[in-house]
Amino acid sequence: MKVYRYGLCLLAFSLLPACGESQSNAVTQDAGPSVVQAKTVHVQPGSWIRNFKSYGLVTPAEEYEIGVEVSAAVKEVLFREGEAVEVGDLLLKLNDRKLTLKLDGARANVEEARANHEQAKSTHERNESIYKTGVISEQSFLQSEAAYKSAQANLRRAISAYDISREELADTEVKSPVSGVVTRRNVESGHSVTPMDRLGVIRVQTALRVESFVSQKDINHVRVGMSAEVSSPAIPGRTFIGRVDRVASSAQAATGNFEVGVVVDDTVALLKDGMSAMVEFRGTPQEDMLAIPRAALVDRGRRLMVYRVVDDRAQAVEPLLGVGNAEQVPVLSGLNSGDEILVSNLRLISEGQLIRRTNDPVNKNQEG
């Protein structure tokens, strides 16, 4: 019996240190209620910039369709798919035999019309001088005047026909009006072509567009002319400056998203047609907007709550929040400027929890 009592005493003494040990660095056990050590910040107004992202594909912003101005057979094709071309490069040569003959005929007509004009002019001037002396009748004078005017009109028509023939002959050589890359070729030597035919496509090298798709919650923040940054997983580490040039007025029926076109300035031609791209839109700054760190939010029964510190105790608040970014979230209502909120050890916090601050609580919001 004595041995049994002695063992109970030893067990009691061995348990005494464990009973007095602290359970957590964050929670302090006093004689009264527990205290949670936590970091806090003060909610303050600042400048909030609404940033958001969307995804899409790179497409040509400007394309030139290769065509002809005259109907003729193709003599030679001088461009290939995938080939870079510069302004003024010769793309096509057409058979110019008929047009050369037509120009020769137009030139002869001009020479004849000019000779007739000179003769009619000389006759009219002579008749005009002698008409004043009464040597010829008024009828003869008017006839020479009409012949002169007719010769003038014939000369103008002949010169116009010659100019047209000369331009048509020049059009048998098709030159590129833009610098870019040939993306399609639909013609071969010997083909007969007309002005209605599309013989190829040149994508302007430095003019690209990202066709992106913006969700319903973000579309009202998009404006034509606003700036954007474009990046692509195909070109890691590079961003490109873009500008919104088109915003769809209605959503796509299948997805509910709105198509937004962003023109990209890619002077080094790294982006390619068909590449996937991410667009980050940078909206207009909103002044005096309250925002809180995401670290202040805690999920309580699928409700995003914030714990405000009042008289050193936690008070649960469910604010109305806007769409934020990775660091901060704008507050639409439910919190006021100057409110002190908890941003750490939230898993240990409950309504009425006594708080011990571990920092200087004053902290300003940053731009979102």
Question: What would your notes on this structure say?
Answer:
The chain is of the alpha+beta class and 368 residues long. It has four domains: 24-48 and 287-357, conserved putative lor/sdh protein from methanococcus maripaludis s2 fold; 52-61 and 205-285, Efflux pump adaptor protein, beta barrel domain (Elongation Factor Tu (Ef-tu), domain 3, Beta Barrel), CATH 2.40.30.170; 68-95 and 172-197, RNA polymerase II/Efflux pump adaptor protein, barrel-sandwich hybrid domain (OB fold (Dihydrolipoamide Acetyltransferase, E2P), Beta Barrel); 97-170, Helix Hairpins (Orthogonal Bundle). Helices cover 25% and strands 36% of the residues. It has four helices and 24 strands. It has helices spanning 2-20, 97-131, 138-170, 216-219; strands at residues 27-28, 35-38, 40-42, 45-60, 63-66, 72-77, 84-85, 90-94, 173-175, 180-185, 192-193, 200-204, 207-214, 227-231, 240-247, 258-265, 276-293, 298-299, 304-310, 313-317, 320-321, 328-333, 340-342, 354-357. A six-stranded antiparallel barrel has the order 4-13-16-15-14-17. The protein has a four-stranded antiparallel beta sheet with strand order 5-12-10-7, with no helix packed on it. It has a four-stranded antiparallel beta sheet with strand order 9-8-6-11, with no helix packed on it. Strand 19 and strand 20 form a beta hairpin. The radius of gyration is 42 Å and the shape is elongated.
